Amino acid sequence: QHLKEMSHAFAYSKTRDQDLAYMLAAESHIGTQNCTNLMEPYIFKRNREGVHIIDIGKTWEKLMTAARIIAAIKNPKDVLVVSGRDFAQRAILKFGTCTGANYMGGKWVPGSLTN
């Protein structure tokens, strides 16, 4: 019930069910066996193999919040999308290309932002 109430706070709530179906189809709810204290509120349950299943309802809400924040930035070059994970390289490249944002993939080099 809480998720339904919360989803009405977002202008994008008309696509929520479809977005959740896409997230399930992409298996974005499959987590890892590791879980920190900061991750616990976003864990739905743990399967028999010990893999944590992520709560996609909460994930969707955080994505919508992030989308609103990014959309409010006037200059897309002020946005930097970063991922050190190999499986996210294509996603950050596509996001950066489509939005005009800066992106940095691969190993994070210390001093990349400060030097």
Plain-language structure description:
The protein is an alpha+beta fold and 115 residues long. Helix content is 37%, strand content 13%. The protein contains four helices and four strands. The strands form two sheets. A two-stranded antiparallel ribbon has the order 1-2. A two-stranded parallel ribbon has the order 3-4. It is globular. The termini are far apart. The model is unreliable at 1-7 (pLDDT under 50).
Topology (SSEs and partners):
Layout: H1 2-7, H2 16-25, E1 43-46, E2 52-54, H3 56-71, E3 80-83, H4 89-99, E4 102-105
Parallel strand pairs: 3-4
Antiparallel strand pairs: 1-2
Concise structural overview:
The protein is of the alpha+beta class and 115 residues long. It is globular and about 45 Å long.
